[in-house]
């Protein structure tokens, strides 16, 4: 086995990108290739937080819960859904499905993007933000527990 340098990886369209988001999350990304596929490990802040509601036109996103719990909301053709996921559970959002996640404090998730990317294939969903950003973690956990 021979290591691949960051420069050689870039020649194949693969890069790493790591960010601290405004909500305190840490995101460690691999991919961001021209076809839109990528992998991201996200570590939630110590207080937990909502992400920003959005949708994609060309890529699907698979979210897998490693630890902690998440709530996800989706808005699909006007139908609103709110669910809770625990470790080992996952959800996939297809193109054009508006979605948002709340990550519980310290939770870890994995996100895989795949499909056909369009340039800047991330579109905000203010209408879903209006339905999610005000929801407190206690209410989310109660909703998720009642559904089980």
TrEMBL record:
CDD domains: cupin_RmlC-like. InterPro entries: RmlC-like_jellyroll (IPR014710), RmlC_Cupin_sf (IPR011051). This is Cupin domain-containing protein. It comes from Paenibacillus ginsengarvi.
């Amino acid at each position: 086995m021979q290591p691949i340098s960051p420069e050689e990886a870039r020649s194949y369209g693969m890069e790493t990108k790591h960010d601290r988001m405004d909500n305190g999350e840490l995101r460690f990304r691999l991919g961001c290739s021209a076809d839109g596929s990528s992998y991201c490990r996200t570590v939630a802040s110590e207080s937990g937080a909502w992400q920003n509601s959005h949708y994609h036109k060309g890529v699907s996103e698979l979210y897998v819960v490693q630890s902690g719990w998440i709530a996800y909301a989706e808005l699909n053709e006007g139908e609103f859904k709110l669910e809770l996921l625990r470790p080992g559970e996952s959800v996939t959002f297809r193109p054009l499905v508006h979605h948002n996640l709340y990550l519980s404090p310290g939770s870890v998730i994995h996100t895989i993007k795949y499909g056909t990317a369009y340039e800047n294939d991330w579109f905000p969903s203010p209408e879903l933000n209006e339905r999610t950003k005000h929801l407190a973690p206690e209410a989310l956990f109660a909703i998720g527990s009642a559904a089980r």
